[in-house]
Amino acid sequence: MAAYKPVVVQACPKLGERITQDTLYWRGYKTPVQIKEFGAVNKIDFSPVPPYNYAVTASSRIHIYGRYSQEPIKTFSRFRDAAYCATYREDGRLLAAGSEEGSVRLFDISGKAPLRQFEGHAKPVHVVGFLSDKYRIFSGGDDYSSNLWDIPSSTEIVSYSEHTDYVRCGCASKVNADVFITGSYDHTVKLFDARTKSSVMTIEHGHPVESVLLFPSGGLLVSAGGRYVKVWDVLKGGQLLVSLKNHHKTVTCLCLNSSGQRLLSGSLDRHVKIYSTTSYKVVHSFNYATSILSLALSPEDETIVVGMTNGVLNVKHRKPEEKNEKSQKKRQPAYRTYVKGRSYMPKQEDFCVSKPVKRVLRKYDKLLRSFQSSKALDAVLEPPIMLHTPEVTVAVMQELHRRGTLRSALAGRDEKQVNLLLTFVARRVIEPRFTPVLVTVADMITDIYQPVVGQSAVVDKQFLKLKEAIGKEIDYQEELLEVLGMMDTLFATFTKKRDTCLEENKSNGLTEIIETNRNY
Amino acid sequence: RWGNAGFPPCRYLLCASGDFVKVYSVNTEETLRLMGGHADLVTGIQLNPHNHMQLYSASLDGTIKLWDFMDGIPIKTFTVGSKLLALYAPASAEDSVFVVIPKKGERDTFQLVSVKLTKGAGQDLEAKELSVVLDGVGASVKHIAFGRGGAYVVSVKGVNLQVYFFKRKLLNRFSLSTVKKKGGDNHFSCVVCHPTEDCIATGHADGKIRLWRNFHHKKEYTYSTLHWHHDVVMDLAFSMEGTRLLSGGVESVLVQWHNESSCQKDFLPRLGSPIEYISMSSDGALCCTLHTDNRITIINSNLRFSRSIQGLIKSRDVKTGLVVDPRTKALVLNGEPGHLQFYSLQSDQQLFSLDIVQRQYIHQAGLKQSDLVKVAFSAQGTWLATVEESEEVTDPELQLKLWFYHEETQSFRLNTRINTPHDNHITDMCFRDMDELGDDSLILVTTGRDCVFKVWGMIEDTDPEAQQSMSWSCDFVGSYHNYQATNCCFSEDGSLLAVSFEETVTVWDSLTWDLKCTFCHPPGNIRNICFGRLTCSKYLIGATDYGFLCCWNLLTCALEWSAHLNVVVLQPDPLSEHIAAVSWLSKESSLFVFKPNEPRPIYIQRNLCKEKILLAAFVPRDEPEMISSEKYLWLRKSQLFFLTDTQELMTLSTKSLEERLTPSSKQLAVEESLPVTPFSVLLGKHRRQQAQEDIDLGKPVVHNKQEQASPAVKELLHTPAHVLPSASFLCTIFINSLLISKENKSAEEVADEVEMESEKAEDDSDEENVTEMEQEDTSHVELLGETTCKLSKSQEKELRKIRKTDYSWISAF
Fold this sequence. Notes:
Chain A: WD repeats lie at residues 118-159, 244-285. By secondary structure, chain A is α+β, with helices and mostly antiparallel strands. Helix content of chain A is 26%, strand content 31%.
């Protein structure tokens, strides 16, 4: 004796984006907060210590924002012209910034006036940064030079003039206090060691380098320039590991997440792409309103801040973790009820009698099992099923048709139910996977309710809608056929015809269209 | 083939099946005994009401036999003379039973007669004392019932019910209106009587059950109606106390009605297939239902499914053809609706049943339900492709499913389901058989009536997080002049694909999917195509509608030879270059086996059987058999099985005529015919053992004789003492049987006689395939013994030579 077999619902593979762990994680941000700055935001830097304030460099000011504040909690505005690249020191107490006039300034977070001012660059300084020993600063300027400064004595330690174009980006190694890299518009990334007089390594990126990044381990180097993001293995002497081309405009900024598992890149094409650092595949991407210039991610990925060319700062905070309060309210059975008898290990001579598995049937299955056709149809016409899982509704309709009881299930309904049915049919009949079944259903409905047409305005309206939907679909299919015909002629002229007549329909479209057309 | 069933004291289940009565154990579902002796279909069995260890059986051969079913021996045989269609043995009748026989002189009219069973001394008795009780009764067992204590008999036919009271000699007739209103149909389908009250329950064609009371009066009778079934009530049964009534029908639901009221009823649904018979055990603890697909279900009194006895499922229509599973060497064909059954020929049992359609089967006439139509296995048996379609003619609902063999669970798992692979019916399907290249090269080709053939290939899912890494998708769609594609076939090395489009065979390169060449042999559409194998792989064989068998050479692209032969089945042997062709001409099927490289067949079997052979399959043997005869050399590596349109499965036996003609061998037929019933399963086993014995017996004569004699001794030792003749009578037989036969011819004869009797059953079932000549030979040899054996051999050889020249290939056209 066989058990009842539930109705087979034809699952359709979901088109479009697949939901992964990453998409769920990166979608877990609240709606962004927009803050208007005075000019294009060229740098955002998070303080490495709590409460994780961040410094935003835009135009001639450096604003420091608190985590949730919309107004800056502090402003450094003593710049005559544009300020660049305000960067925190590791302890979060000092801030260094370059400027248009060629000086590098060092601020105390609590003070207002600069503590030190390093003069030596002849042209604007676009990049500054602290070495990991905290007492030295590196900088790169439009005069093609990269300099190293000593903070206590405020003097220049060394100046490298190896680049042949503007130096626009740089990064210090976290592992070695003497090592830093700079990227330049001369298409190269150079690695400097403060103990030597010249660069240690030169990497040819191939495009003007906009941003560089070192992995926390110091072994891998990421450079961005042009449309490319390239990853290099420093320890192997600057060998190219992978080249990513996922943006269609220049990539302007790079950023690692706190765990180092994901790499983020922002670009002028208004996208932020997130890559996995193991497979270097794009796992998620964000869309923004305008071109992105700078990007930063707070520790623990709590906040994503993106600066754009039009001076808008876009701040996204992570949603707080939802706690399941409902389950806490429910009184759980005592622990011993779960472990009761579970710990018993059956001996060899024991007969094991397994508990019969109780099968849970859906409501429509229960009704179908007892041959209640109308009720089963009612069950699947309920809004949650009808709206969210139309394939279930259609599968039950098909099953009823197979049993030969669809007509009787459709008949004898009142205005409201017919309206509901017709709404569903009119909306879904054009979906190719539902078409064969719903055409029969539509046929039957028109047959059954033909005598009462004109009695209800609502139903009449739905009939008209159905007619309109079908008419549209036919027009659409005709157009498609025309296009297909044109393409066939094109293909025919391209491919050499042999004398044997050989037809090859690479697209399944043709057969499908013919089938749909025949139905009307 | 099931007949009737009865429960003696609840431990045995008796069942009439074909020419036999089978005894099952209720507890273990085993077949305990097979009682054969009737020459024709057993139509009715009844327990002897006066002795519950005895059983009456009636057969179409006109005899009633009384059996001791505990030991499986016949006690008495009563010869009635005319065909017996049903048997009743009510307790009230002292020494007579009731049978239904056809009325003399009139066709399709039957009468119920009582037969007086004379108490003679011998085993075979004549029972000529017939007295007609009722005229114009139905031919089925279910149309007559005996009332409480045998006081009256009820018969139904059409819309008429007649009750005959034995004591008062009164016949009451009642009839219902023949008018069908509101879908009602008053025709009677079955009748039973209440065991303790005067009440008759009748089942009707529209699913109603009527309970008749007060039928002693012609006018004042009453009836009440119970209605649940939507189609014919196939059978009814009252419980022993009469409080419960069981009914069953096409819905395959057993309904239990309490106290004859329609409000109280219990159901046992989804019994698998329509119920034909219901039978209650004598103590009321068990009940059993017989189903249309060779199955008995045993059900507890509280309506719980207890166990079932399952035979080889005989499906209505074997659409899938005979396919051999390469993994288990099992024969695969349609089973239950929507299922595929794997039937092991070696062990003669059903291995398992695979649910393909996975939908609830609604037992209702006239529904168009989807069923399995095509099956194909990959060469290793790792992939299985199935096609299912609903029976609608114009717009079939098609599904192509691909199953992967899962090693851990040892069963097939659904991998890919393709909806509407073709726009019209799929006509053929095949895998590219490439053993050595593994799964990568595996492709599937389907041909459809929508004028295209499609090539399906495997694609690997690159996403590591996906649940399954393989799936199937369409690679290529090909067509030829918009003709319907009918057959497809891959060459042995998989480099060429042959697809037949109506009259034309097209050959395609399987790498680039270019059309290589076309072959045509008008008039007539191509019916079958296949490539030659091994040394003959350069040949392509095709059979056309208009009776031509053509062989094309693929190297020269020309017709090599053709023959005029109406080929129905064309089946290549996968392990050799032989090809079997079965032709159907003027009411007989003939078998031709040939190699493609020579137009002369190497084996011809004319008049294979009277039925049309629909399907054939070569089943590879586990190990090549040693065959001495050159004639059967082609059967060395695999065995050929046929399925006829009457659903009989047949095979060719390979033993040479000499071997089969040894005196001890009673295996007569050139072909062994196995009807597809559980019986055949048993019978086959039995026969195989017999054959095995025969081989063992081979040479030493003395040993041979001992073996021959042994049945007599066996008979002597196994028959219960109370049915044995006197010891003095047996003595001579016993002693003779121990003697060495050369010195004593009479002993041999006696032994033969005994043996003949015991083996009669097998002879009977071997049926029509025996040619007269062979039978003559056998008897001849038997009578004359050893000395003439040599002569007969030479005669046989001569005869065969003559036969060969007579029926040569050339003479066929």
